[in-house]
Batch of 3 targets.
Target 1
Amino acid sequence: MTAVRDAIDSARVALTAAGVDTPRLDAELLLAEALGVDRTRLYLDRDLAVRGPAVRRFQELVRRRAVEREPVAYLLGRKGFRRLELAVDRRVLVPRPETELLVELAVAELPRGARVVDVGTGSGAVALALADERPDLEVAGSDVSADALEVARANGERLGARVRWLRADGLPEGDWDAVVANLPYVEAGAALAPEIARHEPPGALFGGEDGLDVIRAVVDQAAAARVGWIALEHGAGQGAAVRMLLALAGWASVRTERDLAGHERVTVGC
């Protein structure tokens, strides 16, 4: 039997040595998972201890996090996004806090009843958050990956969300008022953290030589379809290039919004 505090401290040391960015938080999340309890109970329940099968389970989770650098979201099988908890695995990217900016902008700016599609939906995070926060919208999520759509559809069914799921390479056919998209935008050959490079699907990450190949294609498709409002997530140094793409494609008003870290993150055309 091991005390909770000792187990956390031991895991924190191992994770720190492995170069994990948030060793204590990760240790707490993994221990709570091994014990089958909420993280807050680790500190509120004085009788809680690590014993029996939970010891082996915790050791294995810490090993996979430290040695294999597996993302915590994959180890837990879930990730929070806005007000939702989503099931995630290696078929989809782990939803990131900066992607919530896409949802914030669409929630604030789209007119009532707008038909909006989340292109490259992955786990369904953006589409499901929009359906949750703006039930007046007609929301669809699309992806070229059948595996990703399986994850998104399962999340939608579990949450009881009114979202249509479509398989398409780029913008699916339809009469869309708005497009939101977190598309692959990493430059070919870019150095990535081990958690990303070893475990997340490369097809959802890399966007060609300059990282903008997939974004270019969707911009062209959306312009041809006369989409009135488009919001695209991109890398911190890609704002100027994406603004130019949207302006040249015909959107009259183009601007880039910054994420909470101050980085240019989402460019909007309308």
Note: The first helix runs from residue 4 to 17.
Target 2
Amino acid sequence: MSIACLLISITVFAAGVSAETAEQNHRYAEQLFESGDYQAARLAYKRMLFYDVNTEFRDIADYRIAQSYYYQRETTRAEALFRDFSTEHPNSPLRFRSQLMLGQLHFEAGAYSLARTTLFELLHTTNDPEVVYAAHYLRGWCYIHTTDWNKAITELRRVDALQIDASQREKARRLADTLLEETPLPHKSPQMAGWLSTVVPGSGQLYVGSVKEGILAAALNGTFIYLTVDAMRERRYIDCAGIALVGWQFYWGNRLNARRLASEYNKNHEQELIQTLKHQVEGVSP
């Protein structure tokens, strides 16, 4: 009987030591992570998993390892780990934050449509206020970067309606108000600019506001038209053909140039608004 009690005591003691060691290893790894030493933290988490695969901190360790790759800009490895996290830990509350990180990675890669889809799926699987806030907020920025201003406002208004920290709601409200005030943006039609320069060379550039480009296009095309007509009047048909051929290149280029300037005009206004929104909220990753 005494031998059995001794074995039980040893087992209980060993389990207690093991639990205490796991807790200490976890705290040590967390300290490294919080200090920003992501490589050392990753090694500490991996060592903890190596010695105890079934540790109660396994989901936290896997999540932190993926985060450490993300913060060290190893996005491919981070994405793979975040993607596998829900399969490995289907009951962990961190699976929602893992999917949120996937949306963040897609956003930073410029895959805005994929990011919105990932976040949309996340919003239908969790009620965690912080995750829901981050998902709507990030979806708002996805729409901002694709210049879908109305949908961006809708997403940001949803953030404002959540029961979360007042500063977070205020940040979203400020962005939505700015978008509402600044949009729709001044717009120039590339098609209109192209057709104007087709009828009267240089007029498309003037329509966009590029006065120098318009005057230059009008002068060049006017010169070639004059030279072509003059060659025809003097029956210098070979010269006429050569001048017309060269002049046609300038004429067609004038039309394409007008369309390009109109597109740049629109793009510049969009980028200016996006930069204004970024500067409006300090510390925003988008």
Note: Confidence is low (pLDDT under 50) at residues 4-17.
Target 3
Amino acid sequence: MNTELFIARRIFSSGEESQQLSQRIIRLALLSIALGLVVMILSVAIVSGYKKEISDKVFGFGSHLQIVNFDTNQSYATEPISQNQPFLEELKNLGGIKHVQSFSTKPGLIKTDDEVQAINLKGVAADFDWEFFRENRVDGEIIDVSDSVPSKSIWISQQIASMLRLKLGDEILMFFINEKERIPRNRIFTISGIFQTGLEEFDKMFALVDMRHIQRLNNWESDEISGFEIMLDDISTIGLHEMQVRDMVVNHMVENAPILKVVNIIAKYPQMFDWLRLLDMNVWVLLSLIVVVAGFNMVSSLLVIILERTRMIGILKSLGQPDWSIRKVFLYLSGMLISRALVWGNLLGIVLCLLQQHFHIIQLDPATYYVSAVPINFSLFHLFLLNIGTIIVTILMLIVPTWFITRISPEKTVRFD
């Protein structure tokens, strides 16, 4: 039988502490722990949700991995590769690969009566996954690329449409410049869809068209493309899959064919993901401050409890109970009190997360924050770590004040009353 745990349970369940003067102090300490846990749950859920929202938008525009021509050109005027690659079937069957699609890019200029806007056309084919753009669609229909004649439809962002005062169904004139050609080429497209992701840097950069237009503008063959985009099931495996895909590409190299390279989207846009990683530092600082403050509040409460239980400590010592055994009684008692606070903190934190996640109560300005509402990414794993971390750190901080028990003399405390 665990004697220390038995005594702590009797003290915890006796209700005697409700008659003590220290009850208000204890309640304040428990309230600080509960509210601290609520803030920690919300902080982690919001920051992880924000990172996920922004990352998903970047991945929606460029996927997780890309296979492109190994040239030194850093612009969107790419060198072509063959669409018929020997590794393609093996790549699609590789575990963890969600989707593989071909793409082509071509920079150009949109010309209206009053404005000129540079933009990058992204050509899509029948294998293009429209899920991301469907989720961010403002209006319009998906581009039909199944016809033998290239579709003249184009998808532009709401930001471009507002800047150039365009609307669904309008025709837009675009100009393109090829190397070694003095006269720019032009195409007329009809706006069939408008999207808005809130990610301003990308919204004003990309528009979607039928890939065959880009192939003709670049004087490419019908089987030539800019590259392949690879979507993964789990972003955490991007490093592993990058190495696997690179090995696959190298093992299937064909003589006299263009050399291919595998591009990690995180390495392609490092400034975006470095900024997101900085948010983790803010969360760690906030979590540390909250846990330390809650721990000090609990330390003061434990000292008051020890002072009020001085007579009981003296009796236990006179019966031969070791100091460490008595200290464990108060550590068990503190753990029970902390657990009670954590229960209420978890309930309130989870309710607030679910309310924001489903009803978007707190709205944001997309122009500033890139999202229209405070994002929530609720994770049971994060919840478990926060609870375990709070208990461990707080209990470790409480070991120090229990040392005061060793200074209590049974001779004086038994006669105290």
Note: The mean pLDDT is 89.
